[in-house]
Input
Amino acid sequence: MAMPTPTEHAAKVADTAQDTHEALVSGRDRLLACAADAFAQRGYAGTSVAAIAERAALSKSTVFHHFPTKRALYLAVIEKAVADFSQTLDSVLDEARPLDRQLEDYQCQHIAHILDNDQVTQLVLRELQKNASKDSAHLVSDVLSANFQRLVDFISQAQNHGLIRDHVDPSVTALTLISANVFYFQHRKVLRYLPNFTCADQPRRYAQSVSELIFHGLNGEHPQ
Amino acid sequence: MAMPTPTEHAAKVADTAQDTHEALVSGRDRLLACAADAFAQRGYAGTSVAAIAERAALSKSTVFHHFPTKRALYLAVIEKAVADFSQTLDSVLDEARPLDRQLEDYQCQHIAHILDNDQVTQLVLRELQKNASKDSAHLVSDVLSANFQRLVDFISQAQNHGLIRDHVDPSVTALTLISANVFYFQHRKVLRYLPNFTCADQPRRYAQSVSELIFHGLNGEHPQ
DNA sequence: TGATGTCCTGACCGATCGGTCGGTCGGGAC
DNA sequence: GTCCCGACCGACCGATCGGTCAGGACATCA
Output
């Protein structure tokens, strides 16, 4: 399935491709990667097939050789993004350590992950925002539920052990934690212009502050 | 400046316009309203001038009579949205009442407001997400800063009065509160598919839960 | 050597895009 | 009356859109 030899054409590609996907020898893989970038940056309607082909140093026709329609390419990109997204954050919440430390670690790892995979994250978020009805139901159960359910279970468990007061809603807590990170991710470039906000370029510090806030609350005791 | 008489054309418009903007007699106002809907639903690139004109029951040429370019129409829509956005939530945090009640009220009013003006909110959020650099700097200072700074000041003040522990960062707190509402707004349709999340269709209850959580924290005392 | 299949290409298609142009129409000003 | 003006329109433009098609380059297998 893999290409046997880097042909003369592939050598030319390595010279002309302007992205970070030069290492991908397969035209199809290069298309997927470049399309992900393009769709994430400009959206579906704002991205032309010709632009994707140019990024991948291929002709527009070749795009339609690998994918029947533009929409099919888009869905393939989304599918790959979801697959990549779902295989992380699996080991943070399991160890036997203080509750607040686990929450802090989860929050830090989560924000680091979405910042590392920013193109893909933006794509998934954009997809989650619009259709919402039938199409993206599986998207939710695959991506959002993965993080969400893991957090909810963890909080519920801690609640059953008496480590968290009974009155809090685990699902609301989980959503608040995720919201903070997603909002930071979506608007991080613009947060720099906010006066009094000092975490704009320090995601880790932000995640720590949020988890500390959620854990102790505004009127809690023993801040440290 | 206002139209003197509803001409025969205006009467025809009232019949054919399929939106909720039939009451707007001025073609320009109708264009702005319909363009806001269209841009919010399909984005800038996904919305054609012809589609906007059709919604407003006008010809495409008339759009260019009122606005020099499609981009100018888009900016006019954004500008109007920002102006509408900035003149709310002014009186919630001023009264002399318990801190937790004020926070709860703010959170409830804020989420109600963005849900009521969903098209416009979506437009502003979408604009905030992308450019981020020079273009939308004023957008931030106008919209986000308006809510943000008000909240930060309020929390800082309460902190100075000893009502909030010193260790919390007011700006992080404000951002967490806003994040929760924005995330709920952006993904509310999809949250229904989340198991264990019971607030998907109860924004007020969600806002109350969030403010309660932020105020008391996970390990706080006296839940009620 | 020829047949076959994959990858890729340039030329081309109809449709639609944003935008222009010339012109119609009705209502004040005088 | 007639003059002007803003609102509005149909027809049209070049450019670009997504997508098609016939065929070339090349590797594999017979």
